[in-house]
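Reopening this ticket.

The earlier resolution said the output was attached, but the attachment link was broken on my side. Pasting everything inline this time so it's all in one place.
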Amino acid sequence: MKTSRCLPLLLSLCIGQALADTPINLRHDAAPDVRIAVGNIKGAVSITAWDRREVQVTGRLGDGAKPLAITGSNDELTVKVEPQGRSGWLGWGSDNAMGPSVLELHVPKGASLDVNVVSAQLGIDGLDGGDIDVNAVSGKVRINARTPSLSAQSVSGSIELAGHARRAELETVSGDILAPTLGDEASLQTVSGRVQATGGPWRKLDLSTVSGDVQINGGTAANGSLSVDSMSGDVQLQLPANVSAAIEASSFSGDLRSDFGEVSRHEHGPGSELKANVGGGSGRIHIETFSGDLRIRKKGNGE
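Inline output:
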């Protein structure tokens, strides 16, 4: 009797073990500029460009996930990890017992991407030409690509950008934004995350933060604009020596210092401001902080 009772349990455990972490090996023909939608709830996603007209997916599918498939046509394909049973958006609120899935994709170099991940790390490498749209919750996002348009939003994970995005829109709540190669136009927003950005000359750069510290290295193009708004985060802006811009900066209670022009202090009450025309003033630079310190430096000058 005892043995007969144990057999179903042992069989169930063996089946569960066999289904856990299922190997993935899928292929689908694809157009050179195919648009690919990718989704994963937990684990990791790695997307690498190659010169083939084909999408390949390898890796391991976590226990509790539905069988994976590449669906769609050669122009539009979808690769999405879904839990067994009911789930909300991208599996949010689904069975927490679902194991992590690791997706390793090879895609045509000119592909466009729409990627949604929850608790999954994301890496994108080598793409050249297609648009990239990323939504993440807690996983780190790393993008090394050349793209005319990049949009990346994350809640608590950091966003790291390499390569070149002509237009970039990067948003986080508590995650850092690290963007050493920003293109002509960029919009950066964070609540408490740190921002480090380099690039330019920018036609338009807009940056806003609540409590995150900001470091920017670059200047404006002819008739370009650079705008920074901070509540309590410190801001450091390093401009090239040959910058041409009208600079307006102010801080309510933070310390304002500048290598360009002279800072004026309010006679009654807190606050300081700066107005300076540099190099003909063809661009426009506007920076405001409430309680954060503000430092505007000329490249090459020491502290």
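Reporter confirms the inline version is readable. Confidence is low (pLDDT under 50) at residues 6-19. The two ends are 82 Å apart (CA to CA).
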